[in-house]
Design goal:
GO molecular function, one term (chains A, B): DNA binding
Radius of gyration of chain A: 25 Å
Strand content of chain A: over 45%
CATH class of the largest domain in chain A: Alpha Beta
Number of strands of chain A: 24
Oligomer: homodimer
GO biological process, one term (chains A, B): DNA strand elongation involved in DNA replication
CATH topology of the largest domain in chain A: DNA Polymerase III, Chain A, domain 2
Keywords (chains A, B): Cytoplasm, DNA replication, DNA-binding, DNA-directed DNA polymerase, Nucleotidyltransferase, Transferase
Protein name (chains A, B): Beta sliding clamp
Main location (chains A, B): cytoplasm
Largest sheet of chain A: 9 strands, antiparallel
CATH superfamily of the largest domain in chain A: DNA Polymerase III, subunit A, domain 2
Number of domains of chain A: 3
Number of helices of chain A: 7
Chain lengths: 370, 370
């Protein structure tokens, strides 16, 4: 195995594939990146849950494959001068040369590296990479970390003629984003659930930009393709919450507020709440003002945030984290809050324009004196 | 106790004094900041080792003093809107109001707060604050963390008619910075040792700038005054290394190199060295080139760095960290390395101009095959 390539290109390919490498594994090959020099140079990381493969432009002088420790390989390449890196393997001993710098390190047998699942082309769609990334980013926080309902440790991807809907839920809140897609392939409508851990890597690979990303649904896996990089993840099996029925849409109270101002007020009052001293926020929706108070062993705090509309004095309790997560994610300067009573969920929507996001937060029972 | 002041000024005063507050203490008052409203508003943090006091412009309506948790007080003020903060204490209950935000928190008895030591004016000097800060920053890394020689857990401040010399040593290296001072008071020459922990706070308080900082040596303490802020630290007692005799100055080999290029080469080769797999750098000073190699269980690495001068093939081993710390700190683009043999220290000096810094690194014995 012998090849040479540009340091900067190799460095970014390692950074991408290393995301799917186990930091610590009983199988040493899983801590490594698979290098395959064939017609081109291919790098693969695979932790048995998520696999990432990318291609690097290289001059291949001799074909071959081997596995290198992702950490060490990444650090060596990162610290080399900005020049052409030459790579030559003699058995398992690998020589890396660049400028006046030279490294000799030991590789692992590529036979020990697990094979990446293949995803047969069944149903699929394309969407600009930046849009896919933001849809994931703005819903992933509501993915459950409770393994007792495994299906909810992922996000639902629902594709139909209106576009793509991404939904995350845990027992206390729901996050939903909707956008039109560029193209659809296969069935008229289909859906699948992708583990949150894989999605957080997809989000990073997406980055910004208008370039089309391709998503392909296989029997048991799903594949995301962005530029020269592809990510394969297993799908989660099970019945996802029938979320449409769970969202109340006939809410009598509708008020609007500045997203950042609401967030700042809640954040401020939350100072009095800690992991040890928990307490819900007591929110009172009055005429053109939202009053927020809370009280713990540390002391008490109150704040007021201007809103448009009259909440009629509705009093409702919330977990401060859940409200903040939703407001931080909401891609709008102004939001509409819909409520019906002190024991029904609060729905957060864009104040104007298309309804391309929806967050729902369940209330918390308020005790006297809180 | 009742006062009001600008949020931004109070926030930065808390940030400064909080540096001297114990993060965790069995005496609750030591986790707090002492607020004293008299003719002005004074904030004090004191962890019994280092004390920091600063003054905030405020309108005092009623005098008084109390202690507030540094963490909570700091967070509350930081998150308040940019406005006038009003502060009113009713017994130990403190009301903080700013705009539409209001907090009620509990204070601690100021009687429990330890008294800051007073530093009687004995000897002293002034020096621009930015210069004092950089002198500390460029020597503090060589302060020993070995408590068996307590005197070397601090830096020596030596003042004479040539200016200020700051020296740090552990058993393996030495760092020295020298600069002229603006003014000297008291004895013609004097010296004292300041704990490294206090100096790292002094360095942060100094920041940049030409404003004069005042340093006053007391019997058992030393005081640094920068603007409205003063820091008091105990002095370390004991006999500091007679460093002048320890530095070899008749070195036969003198070569020069680019500081950053040397650092990059060493950093690169150091990739092969880890906490678990230690090995010295094997440095060979040849004609206009420094060859650096090392070898561990991970593999081997080599690099070459251009130098000016002929090292005559001198081979010497170094701890990579110690060389890198010195080169990172050296305030010069080019350095001169002085050596005499493979078992004598390496001295690092500015390649040109005034000799305002000197680093010394002891060699490490090289074993065959390393």
């Amino acid at each position: 195995m012998k090849f040479s390539c540009e340091k900067a290109l190799l460095q970014s390919a390692i950074a991408v594939t290393a995301r799917a490498v186990s930091p610590k594994s009983s199988i040493p090959a899983l801590e490594g990146i698979l290098l395959e020099a064939g017609t081109d140079l291919r790098l693969t990381g695979y932790n048995l849950e998520t696999g990432i493969r990318t291609v690097v432009p290289a001059q291949i002088d001799q074909e071959g494959s081997l596995v290198l420790s992702a950490r060490l390989f990444g650090e060596i390449i990162r610290k080399l001068p900005d020049d052409i890196v030459s790579f030559q393997a003699d058995g398992y001993m690998v020589n890396i040369t660049c400028g006046m710098s030279q490294f000799n390190i030991l590789a692992t047998d590529p036979e020990d590296f697990p094979e990446l699942p293949t995803v047969e082309d069944k149903n699929g769609f394309t969407i600009p990479r930046g849009k896919l990334g933001s849809m994931i980013r703005q819903t992933i926080f509501a993915v459950s970390d409770n393994e007792s309902r495994p299906i909810h440790t992922g996000s639902l991807f629902e594709i139909d003629d209106t576009g793509l809907t991404v939904v995350s839920v845990d027992g206390y809140r729901l996050a939903l984003r909707h956008e039109p897609i560029t193209e659809r392939d296969g069935a008229l409508s289909f859906s699948f659930v992708v583990p949150g851990s894989a999605l957080s890597e997809v989000e990073k690979i997406c980055g910004d930009g208008e370039e089309e990303a391709t998503v392909t649904q296989g029997e048991r896996h799903v594949m995301f393709r962005v530029g020269d990089t592809m990510l394969v993840s297993r799908r989660l099996e099970g019945e996802f919450l029938a979320y449409r029925q769970a969202i109340p849409r006939n809410n009598g109270i509708k008020v609007e507020g500045d997203t950042r101002a609401l967030l700042t007020s809640i954040d401020r009052v939350s100072l009095i709440i800690s992991d040890k001293l928990k307490s819900p926020l007591r929110c009172v929706f009055d005429d053109n003002v939202l009053k927020i108070t809370t009280k713990t062993g540390i002391g008490d705090a109150s704040d007021q945030c201007p809103i448009s509309g009259d909440g009629g004095g509705l009093e409702i309790g919330f977990n401060n984290r859940y409200l903040m997560d939703a407001l931080k994610a909401a891609p709008a300067d102004r939001v509409r809050l819909e409520l019906s009573s002190g024991v029904a969920p609060c729905v957060i929507l864009p104040a104007e324009g298309e309804e391309n996001f929806l967050y729902m937060v369940l209330p918390v029972r308020l005790k006297a004196g809180e």
